[in-house]
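Please, structure for the following, as tokens.
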Amino acid sequence: MRPAIKIIFAPLNNRHKVEREKGLVVDGKTTGRTIWLDPRSTSIGETLLHELIHMRKPSLSEAGVIAETKLRWKKMSWKEKARLLTMLGHAVLEGQDTVVT
């Protein structure tokens, strides 16, 4: 049985103006069954979907994940998006220790 996914809100690197202008902003990352999301992201739902795709298809390139994220996000109904966003209600702040089920 797979362990539950843990979502952690934490400020991630690359938030300086010069780095943003170069396109180096990191809104999320995945390590194992943990997804780290930067709460300053303006598209937190799409970022969560992007990281879930990374988790499900680890061999897919970044360009492939970006393409699949855009495609899936466009095709998702509002109910599917709402279910995805409810996962954020179980997210924890960096330093807490609760697992999302």
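The chain has four helices and four strands. Residues 6-93 form a domain with the Zincin-like fold (CATH 3.30.2010).
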